[in-house]
Predict the structure.
Amino acid sequence: MPDPRPHLGEPLALDLLNTRWNGGGGPRDLLADLDGLEIWLGTAGLAAPANTATLAALRIARDAVYDTVTTGDSAALNAVLAHGRLRRSLTAAGPVTEPDVADPAELPGWLAANDLLDLIARDAGRIRQCAHPDCVLFFYDTSRNGTRRWHSMAACGNRTKAARHYARRS
């Protein structure tokens, strides 16, 4: 089954946040059931069990990432990160860094939480929520000057500009 979300391709942490969106007459949640979990794992390219334990852990991680991004509260994110670590080793091919998470159900959420740390280290100010008042999607602003406002200019940007235009005309 194809991924039904309107915005794909963000870094893993923001892609996890974008499993909630508005569409089809109201709020939608890809992680409402195991079928949605399986879709998300496939889209994210993660080999993890699509079971209730993974679903529960991923919902906890999503809430933790959301809290960190929207309020700066990192307590829940740190709790998710406590389930694993990065293990470094030297192999014949060179240095390797691999996630070390004991419970496979915790791995997808841990990877998303770790990805958020990478985004924050790169430039926390570029983690944004779409500026359209009805949109709940997030994106990482990769524009040159860092002034992107919408998750998609074709969707939310055009709707906002059209609404402003019609408001001026009336």
